[in-house]
Write a structure and sequence with these properties.
alpha/beta, Lysozyme-like, five-stranded mixed sheet, two-stranded antiparallel ribbon, 4 helices, globular
């Protein structure tokens, strides 16, 4: 079993207006992945979008900003083989992946939860703020998570 020290936290968006960790897990399993690609998912409360005249929207405001566990983590500062995410090519073996449900707009509760989770992870894993990256910062053809992550880190952490 190989184990590598956690060196980065990569922030993503789901590129969907709705969802949850269980839905993303289903999407990723359908793609042939072994599990959800992210270690944590931050919900926006929209579980089912309105679709035409036949589907009613299901929005639960109580879930807005909730943090869900995704891919397994055992709690130490290393990524073992069964903890490696599938979120950032070239970084999966040494990083944690966080995903906000949404495309280009996120709720204040999601941003509050992101700040809280990032602060806790920095402390827990003994990391510095500069380890936090937006997906777009390490993957040049990406815009995800579609907000200025360094500015967020500077202002909120």
């Amino acid at each position: 079993m190989t184990m590598k020290k956690i060196t980065n936290i990569i922030v993503h968006c789901s590129d969907s207006e709705f969802g949850s960790a269980s839905m993303i897990r289903q999407w990723h399993l359908k793609n042939g992945w072994k599990d959800i690609g992210y270690h944590f998912v931050i919900d926006n409360g929209l579980l089912v979008p309105k679709a035409g005249n036949w589907q009613t929207e299901l929005r639960l405001n109580s879930l807005d900003g909730s943090i869900e566990a995704g891919r397994y983590l055992d709690g130490d500062s290393f990524i073992s083989d069964n903890e490696v995410g599938a979120h950032t090519l070239g970084y999966n073996a040494t990083s944690l992946g966080l995903c906000l449900i949404g495309v280009k707009s996120f709720t204040p509760k999601q941003f509050n939860s992101l700040a809280y989770l990032l602060k806790e992870m920095l402390t827990y894993f003994g990391l510095k703020k500069d380890c936090i990256k937006g997906h777009y910062q390490v993957c040049k053809n990406k815009t995800c998570p579609n907000f200025d992550v360094p500015k967020f880190v500077q202002e909120r952490l």
